[in-house]
Every structure is written in C-alpha cells, then in structure tokens.
Write the structure tokens for this entry.
Amino acid sequence: MKPLFSFSSVGLADNHELLLQLRQVCKVYKTAAGNFTALDGVTADIHAGEFVGVIGKSGAGKTTLLNMITGADTLTSGEVIFNSSEGDSTSIHNLSENSMAVWRGNNVGIIHQSFQLLPMLNLVENIMLPLDFSGHFQRRLSKERAIELLRLVELEDHAYKLPAYISGGQKQRVAIARSLANDPPIIVADEPTGSLDSLTAETIFEIFAELVEQGRTIIMVTHDNNLGPRFSRRLQIADGQVVSDSGFRLPDTLELQ
C-alpha cells in the first residue's frame, strides 16, 4: 500500500508497550424496568500500535466500552488504567472531572459515525477546536496545524468550506484530522465507516493503517463481522462480555485485502 501521508509524533510508543489495562470493568444503568448491565466484568490489555476491532451486535456494549475507555461515562466498578510513554500510570476514573477532561484532550482522539462537525465552522475551525478545548490554542500555530492535518488527509483545497459543502467521506476524513489535532496516542472510532460506501470506507481503513504503522493505537467499534480481518486484534463482545479475544498480534504490515 502506498502511504497516504507521513506524520511524525513526539511521545508515540514504538515498542508495543502496554498502553491500556481494563480490569473487571462493569457498567450498570438504572432504568424504570430495573438495572441493566451494559458491561459485565470486561478485562483486556491493549498495547501501543494495535488496531483493535471491538465487534458485536447492536446493544452488545461496544459503545459503552468506548465510553469507559475515554472516560466519557462513569463506570460502576472496575478500573481503566492508562500507561503513558513516560512510564506513568493513571487510573482514569479516579480523576476529577476537570483532570479527566485534560487527560482525554491530551491522550484520546475520538471519531464518530455521524462526524460531529460543527456546521457553522469551516473545516479549519473544526479541526482547531480540540486545541482550544485543551488549552493548546495559539491562533497562528493552531491554524497551521489544522491546515497540515487537512493536507495529510488530502483535503487542504477544501479548508475554508463549511461541512455542508463536502461529501460524507470527506467529512469523516476531516473528523480523522480533528482527532489528531493534539497528537494523541489513542484514537477511538465508533462505527466510522458505517454510513460510507465501500470505496470511501476503504480509504478510511488505509488512513487508519498508516496511523497504526506510525505508532498510534486505534480502537474501532463495528457491528460488521466481515471487517474482522482488517484488525490486528479482535474483541468480540456480546451481552456486555468479551466472548472472544484474538490476543495480542502485531503483524509487520496490516493486511487490507
């Protein structure tokens, strides 16, 4: 595969070290009909440089698991531990709300199926938002960073368009660029190709493969079992439990056939 872009990053692990530890993660929602267990004792180790597919049917607990990993929702019990490239370990759900926001902004890029681009901002401004939220915003440098990221996903010529004037596949590429704004080691993606045609989805997977080769860890949720061969690691989830784990495997190249 011809590289789509080259992107160097300070602090990305290159030795496949242990990055995330999930220890007996449980999430129980209280509903009018009683308690609903969305996650039931999920335990897994995720290493730097893995392309992890979290695969399961609708309602299996996939998105809830992403929310536990990113700290977007509180867990009922268990622990999620992040190990930085500097050797520090953080139990993220023990952080305060403000500290959690700072941790997330510095370490996690998030890609949604519905893109989540603000319609009143142009593409450059959308990409600059994470820099603003994390306190890293500097107008000139942030703008240069956003333009660079659009160049990396081959959308520099559309930099000043509003999201309404680009295609769905282009919007997802902008969302990928935005997820890289703060140079995070972890990218989480919730059904990022679910609403795209097969050709556009292939382009998204090529971008993901390039990012993994450069040291990032990608955790992607999908309901499509046919995508299993795309990942270097597969976690099959059903009824809130991991029922199959392919195990830690990092091939020299990711097979995209």
In short: Confidence is low (pLDDT under 50) at residues 1-14, 250-257. Helices lie at 62-70, 97-107, 123-133, 139-152, 168-179, 198-213. Residues 18-245 form a domain with the Rossmann fold fold (CATH 3.40.50.300).
